[in-house]
Structure formats: C-alpha cells, structure tokens
From TrEMBL:
Keywords assigned: Cytoplasm, Nucleus, Protein transport, Transport
Main localization (coarse): cytoplasm
GO CC aspect terms: cytoplasm; nucleus
Record domain NTF2: where: 16-132
Record's keyword annotation contains Transit peptide: no
Compartments in which it is found: Cytoplasm; Nucleus
UniProt lineage: Eukaryota, Metazoa, Ecdysozoa, Arthropoda, Hexapoda
Gene name linked to the record: LOC106120302
Function: Has a role in nuclear-cytoplasmic transport of proteins and mRNAs.
Gene3D superfamilies tied to this protein: 3.10.450.50
Protein name (record): NTF2-related export protein
UniProt-listed GO biological process terms: mRNA transport; nucleocytoplasmic transport; protein transport
C-alpha cells in the first residue's frame, strides 16, 4: 500500500511539472509582467549565480532581462516528503532546454530547478535556480 501511494505521488509530481512548466515558460516568454504571481512573496531566484529574494525584486530582475523564447527538452519531478516541508505538498522540478534571447539569436542550453509548494490550490515557486549551460574552461 505504501508503494502505491508513493507511485501515485510521483505520477502527480510529473503531471504537475508538465502543467507548471508549460505555464511558467509561456508567462516568461509572452506575459512576463504577470509572472510574479507564480512566486511566494519570500521566493528565491538564483539566476546564473545571482541571488534575488522577494517577489518584487524577482519581478524587477526578470523584467530587465531581454525577451526570450524557451524550448523545453527534458523534464523530471519528484515529491518532497511532507514531513520535511511542514506537511505542505511540495515538488522538486528539473527542466532542461534551449533559450534564445532577443538581443542574441544564438540558441543556448539551460538547466533550471524549481521547488514549488501548493498554496490555496495554486502552485507557488519557493526557490528557483536557472543556469545557462556554458562550457567550463579549466
């Protein structure tokens, strides 16, 4: 029985990840001025090593970025044990794909991780980490 519940939670996490990322990238690419509604007021964004805390500051940061087009290539998700997150339904989502910015038509690979929590029947971003996948020169 416990494994059935766990499998159902994983399936729910994957379905939620598909729905959430579809909305997130649509907002980011086409309606960026509305994206702040997807973050907790105390949300955290780490963008290529730059940390931004708080919904208003995240919104300003994202609005200052050039327009973008994201193409999602891979997606994975897993539930976080509710005992670890104050009994709140929480998922970890990992997404990879390509992004093109308006000021540079070069397609760039990216990796992004979201920690989302259910708040009043809506998903909110607790923490997000975005990183362009630029080869490391040693």
């Amino acid at each position: 029985m416990a494994s059935e519940v766990s499998l159902k939670n994983v399936d729910n996490a994957c379905q939620t990840a598909e729905e959430f990322t579809k909305l997130y990238y649509k907002q980011l690419d086409n309606h960026r001025h509305l994206i702040s509604k997807m973050y907790l007021d105390t949300g955290l964004l780490v963008w290529n090593g730059n940390g931004i805390t708080g919904n208003d500051k995240i919104m300003k940061f994202l609005m200052d970025l050039p327009g973008s087009t994201h193409v999602l290539k891979t997606l994975d998700a897993q539930p976080i044990a509710e005992s670890l997150v104050a009994n709140k339904l929480t998922y970890l989502i990992q997404a990879c794909g390509d992004v093109t910015y308006q000021n540079d038509n070069t397609r760039k690979h990216f990796q992004q991780t979201f920690l989302i929590v259910a708040v009043d029947s809506k998903w909110k971003i607790v923490s997000e980490c975005f990183r362009l996948q630029i080869p490391h020169n040693s």
